[in-house]
Amino acid sequence: MIRRASITARLTLLFAAAATAVLLALGLLIGDAVEQHFVEQDMEVLSGKTQLAANLLAQLRSPVDSSALLRQLDDSLVGHHGLAVVVLDAEGKRVFATPNAAFPDVMLNPAAGSSKPRSWTQAGQPWRGMVTLLPTGNRESPPMLVAVAVDISHHEHFMESFRRTLWLFVAIAAILVGFLGWVVVRRGLAPLQAMRRDAASVTANRLDTRLSLDAVPVELAELAESLNQMLARLEDSFQRLKDFSSDLAHELRTPISNLMTQTQVALTRARSADEYREVLVSNAEEYERLARMIGDMLFLAQADHGLVVPSREPVDLALQVRELFDFFDALAEEKGLQLTLTGSGQVSGDKLMLRRALANLISNAIRHTPAGGSIRVGIEACNEGTRLSVENSGEPIPQEQMSRIFDRFYRGDASRHGGGEGAGLGLAITRSIIRAHGGEISVRSGTAGVCFELRMA
Amino acid sequence: MKLLVVEDEPKTGDYLRQGLVEAGFVVDLARDGVDGLHLGETGDYDLAILDVMLPKLDGWQVLAGLRRAGREMPVLFLTARDQVEDRVKGLELGADDYLVKPFAFAELLARVRTLLRRGSRNQEPQQMRAADLELDLLRRRASRGGRHIDLTAKEFALLELLLRRQGEVLPRSLIASQVWDMNFDSDTNVIEVAMRRLRAKIDDGFDTKLIRTVRGMGYVLEAESA
């Protein structure tokens, strides 16, 4: 199971981790700085004492002077109980040593000469010291090794307690920051909660609800807007579906009501055989229309569930159009319409379905072209593959009808009784077929007439 | 000609039987798959009309049983579901044709006659006639009462269809499919217009009208009006 961490928890954790990291780095930096400060202090003492010894050694003219030197050295160190000094001659003999002198042996090697300052622990006591090779006043005698060290245990103690306090503060601060972060995140995400509440109030009956954009922070505004657009699309689709259902009921109600009235009126009294026949014939026509509508509806319902193109084969569009012209020839001639075809092209698809799609386009054009007009079908190559346009002269389609022209049961003239003409499903079927083939259909309308255009591969 | 109809819907079954009997067939009607299969296995039928959804045994099973029993008569399926898979299944099982409900009775009748004719393919006639109308199939010429009639290719094909099936009421959908290869219902009145134009050429100026509109059903060409 995948656990979905909440944004609040995630942000709080990230915030706390970042704060802790910063505090830790800060703590380390402060600790180091303080320690560095102590080291510098110690070094000052050490170099001071070394300088003192250097001065004294410089006054040394002969080995005889050494006892005086030692006394002076001893004097100058009085009151510095934390100080340890050792002076070695060239042979490594201790010329002078304070009682607490505790240097590691490696440091007290005249052959090694001066060594860098370092710290160590001797007999449980921490020290910091340095060793310097210093020339004496006597040119003949070799330089002497002076080792100076300070007891740094009080510094160490201080650092220890300082660090303890520091880390305690860091820990408390981290926890505090984490908590504050949680509070801030929760407050920051409050608009999300508000959006959630808004969204929860959207139902099928209240699709007109929109998320309010005023209270939403910039970062969420885009999301809210996208959601609102989604809602708008849903509302539109839902509205179409609702219209469609009521249209369907209406479309069924009209012929069935005709059938019922007609039949029942016929049954109210005895009639001649011819009259009965008339009723039955009229009924048969009505039934036929109903059956055709149901067939078309089923086709569209299948299309809604992802219509599959049963077979794909190369289809010669020009040939199809010519055959359709042949079919509609009588009708066009009666209306005095001129049918023309230019260009040619091939697409891959189901011949029967494509023929049906084209037949709907052409019969639609024939229906809406005034007598004496013309219908031009053009086929040409385009980026997407092939473009086929069906253009007819006549009245342009009003702009507000353009978007609905492919809707089911939509008839441009808004009249329900087009004198037995189409049920308004033809263009919807055409679009379904073209889409199932991965193509697209569009309609343009101008003063010269109306042009349907389909593009597919 | 003896037909077997297997249909469980009572009204549909009764009207199918009545319609087919009135069209001159001998009809046995079974109400479920088991009865239907039994009748089909024991009787001698020229054609079977099977509903797909049947109690006890469905139409596919009845068909399979008939074929197992060595019955090779043509089978026409009636189905309420127009699914591609159904069609494929039916054809794989050896069905000869199918009709989706609701269908026009004239369409059913025309299909039945087509299937029955398929088995007994006669010598292709070179000439066809009805009363004083003559059609020369080789020279693609039509004449009535010795007078030449000028027809377009499609008008000729239409007239040929009507003559070939003289006396049969041909529904519009069948005409569209046979003459123009339009195998879908079109809500235009193309066929009416084409028919009107053909009639103008064939019947105008003659006392005996050969082509007749059967309202609500289709068109028929008859030498003697019944």
Give a written overview of the molecule.
The complex is a heterodimer of chains A (457) and B (226). Chain A is an alpha+beta fold. Chain A folds into three domains: 7-163, 2-Layer Sandwich (Beta-Lactamase); 218-304, Helix Hairpins, CATH 1.10.287; 313-456, Heat Shock Protein 90 (2-Layer Sandwich). Chain A is built from ten helices and twelve strands. Chain A has helices at 7-59, 66-76, 153-188, 190-200, 218-267, 273-304, 317-335, 351-368, 399-402, 426-436, and strands at residues 83-88, 94-97, 115-122, 125-134, 144-151, 313-316, 338-342, 346-349, 374-382, 385-393, 440-446, 449-456. In chain A, the strands form three sheets. Chain A has a five-stranded antiparallel beta sheet with strand order 2-1-5-4-3, covered by helices on one side. In chain A, strands 7-9-10-12-11 form a five-stranded mixed beta sheet, covered by helices on one side. In chain A, strands 6-8 form a two-stranded antiparallel ribbon. In chain A, helix 1 (7-59) runs antiparallel to helix 2 (66-76) and helix 1 runs antiparallel to helix 3 (153-188). Chain A is rod-shaped, with a radius of gyration of 51 Å. The model of chain A is unreliable at 414-420 (pLDDT under 50). Chain B is α/β, with parallel strands linked by helices and 226 residues long. Chain B has two domains: 2-119, Rossmann fold, CATH 3.40.50; 127-221, Arc Repressor Mutant, subunit A (Orthogonal Bundle). Chain B is 41% helix and 21% strand. Chain B has a five-stranded parallel beta sheet, with helices on both faces. In chain B, strands 6-7-8-9 form a four-stranded antiparallel beta sheet, with helices on one face. In chain B, strand 4, helix 4 and strand 5 form a beta-alpha-beta unit. Chain B is elongated. The mean pLDDT of chain B is 85. The chains are: A alpha+beta (457), B alpha/beta (226).
